[in-house]
Design goal:
By secondary structure, the protein is α/β, with parallel strands linked by helices. It has helices at 23-35, 89-103, 120-126, 142-145, 171-177, and strands spanning 5-6, 20-21, 60-62, 68-70, 78-84, 110-116, 133-136, 153-157, 168-169.
Length: 191
């Protein structure tokens, strides 16, 4: 369950969009609702905007030291592009699992790249202990290019810069993209 979440109710009293989850998606939904006069039109926020195999949108963002990192420089191997916010409780909850993956990745052919919103100092503090690259997306411009409207979410890119997975949302789905299967089995009484 994601919080916060919102839907737009149109003039006919019908739900006009899929559930928008996270502050950025809700802001986008409110902006759309205020700016449009077409109150009956359905809205799609989030979900994969690209099919597997299509070229990913190109971008450049600063790393945490302020150096510009171009998309093409990331294309050394498969990359999980992970949309992140250090203040997100769901992101914090999966941080230790990601650090364990970094220490012993399921595949040396895969890297993790964080695209993080938030204040640079907050991101620096939240990235402590990680080995992966953190990019600062101050205006949250990149996640929407890929159809992401909440954190944590992400998708796999191949080494040629093509989309290699659908958009994954939440810890279990993101870890699965990294080859981690997190299974919790109930214990029998008295065990």
């Amino acid at each position: 369950p994601w919080t916060p979440a919102a839907v737009l109710i149109n003039a006919q009293g019908r739900i006009a969009n899929a559930v928008a989850t996270g502050d950025a998606a809700i802001r986008a939904l409110v902006t759309y609702a205020v700016a449009t006069s077409d109150a009956a039109a359905p809205i799609k926020l989030g979900g994969s905007l690209f099919n597997v195999g299509e070229p990913a949108p190109r971008f450049a963002l600063p790393d945490l030291q302020g150096a510009e990192v171009a998309f093409d420089s990331l294309l050394t191997r498969h990359t999980l592009l992970l949309f992140w916010n250090p203040g997100c409780g769901f992101c914090k909850a999966m941080a230790e699992e990601l650090k364990r993956w970094e220490a012993k990745p399921a595949s040396a052919e895969t890297q993790l790249v964080f695209v993080s919103t938030g204040e640079r100092d907050e991101i620096k503090a939240g990235s402590a202990g990680f080995r992966s690259t953190f990019l600062h997306d101050q205006e949250n411009d990149i996640a929407p290019l890929f159809g992401a409207n909440g954190t944590p979410s992400g998708l796999m890119l191949d080494a040629e810069g093509r989309i290699a997975s659908s958009l994954a949302v939440g810890e279990r789905n993101l870890l699965a993209l990294l080859g981690v299967r997190k299974i919790e089995l109930p214990l029998a009484k008295g065990a």
